[in-house]
Amino acid sequence: MDIHKLNAFIAVVEESNISRAAVRLHMQQPPLTRLIKSLEEELDTTLLKRLPRGVEVTEAGKVLYQEAITILAHAQSIPKRVKNIAQGLEGQLNIGFTNSAGLHPFLPAVLRQFREQFPAVAIHLEEDSSSALTDAVINEKLDIVFLRKPAPIHAEVESLHVLDEPLIVALPNNHPLVSREGAIRLVDLEPYEFVLYRRLAGQDLFDNILANCYQAGFNPNIVQEAPRLTSSLNLIAAGIGLSIVPDSIQDFWNKQIVYRTLEAKKPCIAPIYAIYRTKENSIRIEHFLNLLKESQKSQTA
Q1: How many Cβ atoms are within 10 Å of 84's Cβ, its own excluded?
Q2: Which single residue of 77, 193, 219, 297 could bond 241 by disulfide (Cβ 3.0 to 4.6 Å)?
Q3: Pairing assessment for the beta strands 91-97 and 121-127 based on DSSP bridges
Q4: 3-state class percentages of the chain: helix first, strand second, coil last, to nearest 5
């Protein structure tokens, strides 16, 4: 349906007079009359009753008027929406993370900052394993994902180092090592039973912990694996074993669990990386990456 005709019809209805509507539209009365007649012929319906001093809208005309208002409002918003999409001010950003990376406070902090700056951009969050998340970025199902290690070398994927998080020891509060003051040496954990976040769910963190133990000269005795990092805390609290966990986990559970810093020849850290495509990124992704980089600078300043 011709928007020009609808605009003319709206003016006539609101002015209840073709002459006044013509003045409002900056056009002559005869062309306006022809527009209205053409619209009635197109719809095969009488839209206006001609009165001695003006016009009166029919019942069918009232329905058309309401629909025309909606259509014109939508049409007028299209250029602005298209411009906003092009500038990254609207649309959707798809973000993924592993369970352990999602528990770090930096992620909700940067998401909040992004929402404050770009409130019209919807954010879709998804949690999965690192391999599944990396594939989702490569296949353009996700825009940015946060993992505990850089992505494998791939021509279409880039890794941005976000932060290094210390690894610490989580102990049941009745564990023999609790009585020790200060940091606990990694090698001193060798005689004890371990509870770890299941490798299938948290491959990066699992492999990182094992690598640190191997470097300290021992293979950890893993007696139980938990489906989620937070689930492992329940097992630790139950006294099933100790664990090596990211420092940020302390914010989620401290009942019946004691946390100690970890001492080793090489610092035990669990890094976090942002993984994204190297080509054809939308402006929304660029906005998020810029905010992420600014957040890094503020943390190191």
Answers
A1: 16
A2: 193
A3: parallel
A4: 45, 25, 30
Question: What are the residue ranges spanned by the domains of the chain?
Answer: 3-86, 91-162+271-300, 165-269
pTM attached to this predicted model: 0.75
Q: Would 3-86 and 91-162+271-300 be classified into the same CATH topology?
A: no
What is the separation, in whole angstroms, between the first and last Cα of the chain?
A: 59
**CATH code for the part of the protein at 91-162+271-300:** 3.40.190.10
CB proximity list for 104: less than 8 A, separation 6 or greater: 163, 165, 246, 248, 272
Dihedral sign (CA 295, 296, 299, 301):
negative
**In this predicted model, what pLDDT tens digit does every residue of 103-150 receive, in sequence order?**
899 999 999 999 999 999 999 999 998 889 999 999 999 999 999 988
The CATH T-level fold of domain 3-86 is Arc Repressor Mutant, subunit A (1.10.10)
Q: What would be the CATH architecture of the domain defined by 165-269?
A: 3-Layer(aba) Sandwich (3.40)
